[in-house]
From TrEMBL:
It catalyses: tRNA(Phe) + L-phenylalanine + ATP = L-phenylalanyl-tRNA(Phe) + AMP + diphosphate + H(+). Its cofactor is Mg(2+). It comes from the Eukaryota. It comes from Carya illinoinensis. InterPro entries: aa-tRNA-synth_II (IPR006195), Phe-tRNA-synth_IIc_asu (IPR004529), Phenylalanyl-tRNA_Synthase (IPR002319), PheRS_DBD1 (IPR040724), PheRS_DBD3 (IPR040725). Pfam families: PheRS_DBD1, PheRS_DBD3, tRNA-synt_2d. PROSITE patterns: AA_TRNA_LIGASE_II (PS50862). Residues 219-481 form the Aminoacyl-transfer RNA synthetases class-II family profile domain. Its main location: cytoplasm. Belongs to the class-II aminoacyl-tRNA synthetase family. Phe-tRNA synthetase alpha subunit type 2 subfamily. It is an enzyme of class 6 (ligase). This is phenylalanine--tRNA ligase. GO terms for molecular function: ATP binding; metal ion binding; phenylalanine-tRNA ligase activity; tRNA binding. Tetramer of two alpha and two beta subunits.
Length: 488
């Protein structure tokens, strides 16, 4: 309707000077006129120029007086011709209305405030305030003196009005052309397509947002890390077992049975199946011996090793259990050097907080070869971490039951302006490697870190619960950027 009116009017007239007046004259809603003008302007049927005007609108108080009359008139009408005691008049009116009405009525000299009675001074009053408010509400223009009064009483306020002046545009036509959007089978069959005009492609239109699956930031970082390991010639270890026996998780790593990490406060033990069925018995025997009395130049821990403790099933606390299995397998064949890595989930019975969850992902790398030294470990760590964008490293002596020497790895974080711990590393002990049957001169250098830590740093997440678990922000999962690790 508005479109026909506008295009039709411009066919005969130069200009629509004011869209507001145009809407009023043609009985149209101004918002509809504005929308049509914008659309026609976009397709260059018309040229539109903005018009801004300050207009007056009623405040909430003004609206109530426009509906029920000004306070002074309400007060006047509440006074009977014979007059009324002040307290009674007061009771008849709302306190605020009474206060304003009394002041205004006195100013207009409509009422007499006697000692005994309040009485009318005039026979009849006109509610000019209400009339003026109604005129403003109806969009009429009123004189400046009246405006001043109403503004002073805060019954009206200014509002910016937006409209347009409209002229023909370069593509003007009295009617909008209809373009076909799709070429259909029927158009081809009937030959109608020859007479049709087709809508042009809009190459600037945004595509539909893709509502498919989304990769979690942990998946993206994991993928990049996997690429880095593969580029460095590492093979991925099969980590597809969350349930592990204490033997492979702890005992085979020369971790004593009374070590605090084996406590159920730190480790989740399985109820069903509670124990493992199969272990390589001759190797178990050698592990028992090294714990109890050592060998290979070691004194061992000098306690009674208990098989019942070793067969307990648990949720693996580190992927080093897998590394141990792999090294054991390697030891059963003629020796070949290996570089292994894994990135998978581990579980620890820990209190959950901003930086800890009871399950997380561990990244682990190891190199097994003859004659490796601590210098090799440091060199490999520099190579690995600089590929993650962490080239400034420092090492601190540490302790692990299964490595000697052991080093914590720190990296200088430019953003935080400080050294942050990024991993743990070491050389596996002879007490771990020799019972497996590996040759004596074989050394294994290894390191581990969490996947969550670098992911949180890369994606600027400071609460781990925003990243993983039931409280994650789905918006983050859907819109997180690609991982640029190892790209620049
Ligand atoms: N297993 C260690 C951890 O849980 C990581 C590690 C792996 C340390 C290999 C040294 C060597 O933190």
């Amino acid at each position: 309707m508005a479109e026909e009116a506008i295009l039709g009017y411009l066919a005969k007239n130069q200009e629509i000077a004011d869209s507001g007046e145009f809407a009023a004259q043609h009985g149209l809603n101004h918002d509809d006129v504005v929308n049509v003008v914008k659309s026609l302007h976009g397709f260059r049927y018309v040229d539109a120029q903005d018009i801004k005007r300050e207009t007056w609108v009623l405040t909430d108080e003004g609206k109530t007086y426009a509906a029920s009359g000004s306070p002074e008139v309400q007060l006047f009408l509440a006074i009977p011709p014979e007059g009324i005691p002040l307290e009674e008049l007061q009771k008849k009116l709302d306190p605020l209305l009474f206060k304003i009405g009394r002041a205004q009525a006195a100013k207009n000299k409509w009422v007499e405030m006697g000692k005994q009675l309040v009485s009318r001074k005039v026979q009849h009053v006109d509610d000019t305030v209400k009339d003026l408010l109604l005129q403003i509400e109806g969009g009429k223009v009123i004189n400046q003196d009246d405006i001043k009064v109403l503004k002073g009483r805060k019954l009206i306020a200014t509002q910016t009005w937006n409209g347009y002046s409209v002229r023909k545009g370069p593509e003007y036509a009295p009617q909008r052309k209809k373009f076909a959007a799709d070429l259909t089978r029927e158009m081809l069959q009937s030959g109608e397509w020859k007479n049709l005009e087709f809508k042009e492609y809009n190459f600037n239109a945004k595509g539909q947002p893709i509502e498919g699956g989304h990769l979690h930031p942990l998946n993206k970082v994991r993928h990049q890390l996997r690429m880095i390991f593969l580029q460095m010639g590492f093979e991925e270890m099969p980590t597809d077992r969350f349930v592990e026996s204490s033997f492979w998780n702890f005992d085979a790593l020369f971790q004593p049975q009374q070590h605090p990490a084996r406590d159920s406060h730190d480790t989740f033990y399985m109820k069903v199946p509670a124990i493992t069925k199969e272990l390589p018995e001759d190797y178990v025997e050698r592990v028992k011996r090294v714990h109890e009395s050592g060998g290979y130049g070691s004194r061992g821990y000098e306690y009674d090793w208990n098989r019942d403790e070793a067969i307990k099933n648990l949720l693996r606390t580190h992927t080093t259990a897998i590394s141990t299995r792999m090294l054991y397998l390697l030891a059963q064949k003629p020796f070949t050097p290996k570089r292994y890595f894994s990135i998978d989930r581990v579980f620890r019975n820990e209190a959950v907080d901003r930086t800890h969850l009871a399950e997380f992902h561990q990244i682990e790398g190891l190199i097994c070869d003859k004659g490796l030294t601590l210098g090799d470990l440091i060199g490999v760590l520099h190579d690995f971490f600089s590929r993650l964008g962490m080239s400034k490293l420092r090492f601190k002596p540490a302790y692990n039951p299964y490595t000697e020497p052991s080093m914590e790895i720190f990296s200088y974080h430019e953003g935080f302006g400080k050294w942050v711990e990024v991993g743990n590393s070491g050389m596996f002990r002879p007490e771990m490697l020799l019972p497996m049957g590996l040759p004596e001169d074989v050394r294994v250098i290894a390191w581990g870190l969490s996947l969550e830590r670098p992911t949180m740093i890369l994606y600027g997440i400071n609460n781990i619960r925003d990243l993983f678990g039931h409280k994650v922000d789905l918006g983050l999962i859907k819109t997180n950027p690609i991982c640029r690790l190892g790209v620049d």
